[in-house]
Amino acid sequence: MVMAAGAGHPSGFPPLAPTLVLPATQVALAPTAIVSVSSSTQRKRRCRAEEEVTGAQKRKYVREMAFNKWTKCGQAKTKEFGHSRFGSATFCPSNSGGKSLKEWLGEQRQLKRDRETHLHNVEVEAHL
Known about the structure:
Layout: H1 39-54, E1 84-86, E2 89-91, H2 101-127
Antiparallel strand pairs: 1-2
C-alpha cells in the first residue's frame, strides 16, 4: 500500500526534519571536553591569573601628548589653531600660501567633483 505525501501528518505535509522532544525536567549535562586553544591564548590566560593572584595589574597606557600635532606647523590639528579637514586633506593656515579657509575648501570641492566626473567618464567608456 502506497501512502500519499503528507498522509497522517496534521498539516498535510511531512515534517522537514525530525522533531526533538525534551523532557519537562532539566537534566544535568555531562562536562564537555576541553577545547584546544592557541599557545598565545594560554599564555594570556596564565598571565591574567598570575596578575589576579599577586594583585599586580598591567601598566595602563598613558598618552604623552593630548592632541595630534601637525608636523608642518607644530600646533595641534584642531579648529582652535585654525586647522580644518576635507576628506583626507588638512588645511593649515600657516602653510596655506595666503589662501583663506573658504578658498581652500572651494578648491578641495572642485578637485573632488573633477575626480568624480573623471571616474564616471571612465566607467561610461568601459561599458561602450
